[in-house]
Structure formats: structure tokens, C-alpha cells
Amino acid sequence: MKQLSEVFGDKKVLITGGLGFLGSNLARRLVELSAHVSVVDSLVPDQGGNRFNIEGIEDRLEVQVADIKDTEVVSRLVRGCDYVFNLAARTSHVRSIEQPLEDLEANCRSQLLFLELLKATNRDCRVIYTGSRSQYGRALYLPVDEEHPFNAMDTNGVHKATVEMYHLLYSRVFGIRCTCLRLSNVYGPRHQMSHSRQGFIHWFIRLALSSQNIEVFGDGTHQRDFIFVDDAIEAMLQAAAEPSCYGEALNVGTGIPLTIGEIASRIAARTGCTYDLVPFPEDFLNVEIGDLYLDVSRIMRMTGWAPEVGFDDGLDTTLDFYRRHGDKYWNDADANMIR
Amino acid sequence: MKQLSEVFGDKKVLITGGLGFLGSNLARRLVELSAHVSVVDSLVPDQGGNRFNIEGIEDRLEVQVADIKDTEVVSRLVRGCDYVFNLAARTSHVRSIEQPLEDLEANCRSQLLFLELLKATNRDCRVIYTGSRSQYGRALYLPVDEEHPFNAMDTNGVHKATVEMYHLLYSRVFGIRCTCLRLSNVYGPRHQMSHSRQGFIHWFIRLALSSQNIEVFGDGTHQRDFIFVDDAIEAMLQAAAEPSCYGEALNVGTGIPLTIGEIASRIAARTGCTYDLVPFPEDFLNVEIGDLYLDVSRIMRMTGWAPEVGFDDGLDTTLDFYRRHGDKYWNDADANMIR
Lengths: 339, 339
Description:
The structure is a homodimer. By secondary structure, the first copy, chain A, is of the alpha/beta class. In chain A, 39% of the residues lie in helices and 17% in strands. Chain A is built from twelve helices and twelve strands. In chain A, the strands form three sheets. A seven-stranded parallel beta sheet of chain A has the order 3-2-1-4-5-6-10, with helices on both faces. A three-stranded mixed beta sheet of chain A has the order 7-9-11. Chain A has a two-stranded parallel ribbon with strand order 8-12. In chain A, helix 2 crosses helix 8 (229-241) and helix 5 runs parallel beside helix 6. Chain A starts with a helix and ends in a 14-residue tail after the last helix.
């Protein structure tokens, strides 16, 4: 494993989507490592960007509220950058099925423009792109390794794969050193809590902390791979620091399956809330992927990284964060808003 | 193998890109099989659409000059269709690198709109989408089978893969029965001959028939998989006729490697032209893929189809066609136009 303060100290780093869940946790860590951090975020409502996410480090980084399509702002930010963590994305599985063209515009077109700009202004920087396990869709075998075909069950998953292919293409053809990560279900502080369209665990936590009942869709036996955000951030940094990862696509997760019922039960045990099994809503049925957890041996082998935070500890940290700061992430008046 | 006249006779079939190379050859065959054929083609200059391609069958099919994005025209055409052969595409490797956003718009956005329209108006039809070997990029092993990862070397190859993923997604999630084919280098009558951006073999033929010298880039030892158009059309029809192919992506080629130098030499032997080896132009170097030929055992096993036309016979038929009709495909005044 690389000594991260040596790799990133005094380096110029840009984070796209830097006020969001992953972006802000990454920004905090990079500031701690003495990097010169800029973040760009469009603060599109409901997508997760939140100024409170950088509370306490506001004076130690540059914040630009802009879309990555805003060539003028972005070309200034990427100039001289050593590393770009390219996290900006629109994420919603069910909605991407309903509005696929919007998803194409917000994800593929924006990212292609961004890579064109990098190609024109700074081919020397190193780029980390964060895709997701949704590229794999329904697993043909478990655990899912990087050779598993893309069988996305929603348009967002197809577009995540497309944007990964853009990065690998620009790596091969234009020599921009890109590494692509495929993240499993990441949880922890600073995730948006205003709707459930970006995964259920934070929604369960919000319901629990608002003294509401949790509804688990289906029989609760579906398995997922949950990784605490600090572990995911460390994986991103180690992958960025390791030259042999350039041009590669690597899974990031724990590789440990947990059932959705088990998650609900552990949240309930800590908060005193209750949970029920209810049938899947119709719009989820078609895109439900069954069990999915990742084989993460490749990134472990290539970087020496390994996840360190057990689920119970991660959950305690997360609950503690939202107990203290829930008012910055949701408003009880909207408690019955759309899923 | 299915008896194709029983499968397609009296069936309503739409071909997008139906005035182009593959589309028009397919239309001719389907008319012969007594299908009710409609073609839609935007006749974008230089892309291959040519009214002469349907010479002699004009009265036996419906022709609409429109883009597949033209919802009004297309929704009328797809209504009640039994089969859609979805061939409309912008194809240019080098240009897609120079103008990636144009390629995104013309390929991904148009196809997503088209599939949305199918989903809204006719989920019962069967769809054949033609992707290409360019999705694979540089081969990691040979022959390239369907499990080979997508390593496209140009934006067009990424978008071909994206559109394939759209089709498989709409197949899985919305039940539209789609089969995706990945075609190797197809050659034969009715290909555009006005520039070399859609592959070199037709360009060699044009130069030879115009008594010009052929320039082979590199040392001429690169291998490709050439399939005669009649064989490719038969594969498309057999795949459409075979229900077990729905939801699958299948290679179509001969599986037989031929070097580019050998192709030039066989054309020269038949036409009396000469050929030289010249260095790759700079804009080709980055996107050159080396050797590539396909493993086509999967489609052979699933449908019983096999290629039947040997390269020498296919080349003779092709040369004969352009000797007779070259004036419909190029104008000697533009002989020195851009590659």
C-alpha cells in the first residue's frame, strides 16, 4: 500500500460531484492528506450535493457550483491538476428507466464533454472514475468478478458502463491515465436522505431515526455487498496512487454478502424501530436484480488495499452521524414524500 | 435451419437504414421471401444510403426517407410489425474520435428514442440489431468469441456496444425480443464507394476499377475476417427466425483470417492494378486494432447457419457488380476526395 500523504500531499486534485456523498468524504480525506482540493458540483436537487457535507473544511478547499458541462469553469479547474476524481453522475435506477434520454444527457453526454476537455487541456492528469455494480445487473454467478458481462437492468447501469468505456478508451487512445472502479453498495455519513431512489439502506436509517416503520420489499433474503464509505474512499485513493491500475476496471466492495432483512434487523435493534416485509412495488419488480456481491480480490492484489470497517461498526458510526445532523439531511415535513 | 419463406412470407418487416449496404441487400432477400417490407432511411450523405440499391424492387416495398428519430413517421411504420431489422447507424471510426458528441447523438440518442417508441407502440415485434466487431477493439485473444471484453478503440465502437446494451436491456426488462449481432468485415455489392472511412476493401475495389494504385497501410500482414454480404444477410434472417437467439449477442463472420495484403493482391490479380505498402497515416495509428477474426461457433450451433461463399467467389461477384454499376456509386471527378 502506498503512503497516501506522500502521494497526495501538495498535489492538485479536482473532485467532480465533490459536494455529494462520495465526493465530500473524499474531499475531507484529501484535505487531511494536505492535497490542494477543488470540488465542482452542480447541486442538482435530490442528487446528493449538500454544502453541509464540507462543514468544517470550507476554508481548506475551493468550491465551484457548476455542471461538468460548463467548459469555461471546468477548463480552469483541470488546468495543472495532478488527479481528477470523476464522481459527478445522475443516479437513479427506476427513474432512468422512465426518463432514459435525460439519463443519457446527464451521464454520457456530460462525461464525454468532460473527457474531451481533459484531452484538450490536460492529458497528464490521472483520472479515477466511479462506476457501480449496477453495470453487472443480475448476477450470472457469485461473487461477481470483473469478467462478468454487463447485464444492466436499467438505463443508468448501461450508461455507467458506457462512461467507463469512454474512460478506458481515452486511456488507451489518448494516454490519459484512467482507472475505473465499480462500487458495490456504499453507506455512511453524508449520503442524501430525502428519497430512497439511490438505495435503501440510508432510507431505512432515516425511517428508523424518524420513528417510522421500515418496509422491506420482498422476503428480505436478497443479498448485497455493503462497504463503509471510509473503506471505499481508501480504495479510490490507493487505486489512484498505483500506476499498474491505470487502464483497468476494478471492483470495490467487501465481498461479504448481507441480506436486506438482516440490515433492517440490525438497524431496528439499534433504534427500536420495527420492520415489515411487503411485496415489491410494480416499478421495482422489473429492475430487481436478486443477489449481488463482488469479488474484490483484484484490487486487493494490485494495491494491497482491504476493507477494514465491519458492518456493525460502520452502521454505528452512520447512525451516530445522522442522529447528530439529521436536520441537515431531511425535514420531517417531507417524511411521506415519494420513494 | 429454418425454412425462411415460411418464417417471413406475408410477415410485416421494417428495415431501418434500409437503403444502405446491409439494409438494401436484406430488403431484396425479404422481398424474394414474400415479406411485406418497409424501409426507413435518412439518406445522410456519405453514410451509404443509395436509391439505386433497391433498383428493380422499388414497387415491391415501401420507402420512407426519414431519420429514426422522426417519431411520427416511425411510429406508423412499426405499428403491426412482426420483425424490425434495426440497421440504421452512423459508421466512421476515425471521425467518431474527432466528433464524439455527434456520434453519441446520431447513434445512442437516436436508438434510445427508437427503442422507447417500440416499447410504447409494439412490444410484440422481434428486433435484430447489427453491432460490429469494432465493439471488441484490439483482440486480447484470437479468435474473438462473445465473452471477449469490449475494448473499443474508437467512440463509434463504444456507442455500438452501448446500443447493443440498450437492446438487451429492453429485451430483459420490457420483453421486446431482441437479438444482437456483431458483424465482422462485410463486403459485397451495394456498399458506398465514395470514401474509405467505412473500411478498406470497397475502397481498394474502387481504386482498382478506376485504374489507380492501391495503398495498403502498414506491412499488409494484419488479419481480418471477411464475410460476403449474402452470407451475413442469411445469418441475420436465421437469427431472427430462431427464438432461442432472443436476448443474445452473437458473432457473425466466417472465422477465417485473411491478411490485408492478400486482399490487395487478389484484387490486383483480377483487375491488373498495382498496390504498395505505405506507412499508416497518423490519425489511423492510434485506433488501429491489429489482427481480428471472430469465433462464430455460437450462431452456427444455435441456428444451423454457416457461411457458404468463399472469398474468391464473393470478390468476383462484387467486382462484377461494380464493373456494371460503378457509375451509381462514384464519380471519377471526386477520385481524390478525402479518405
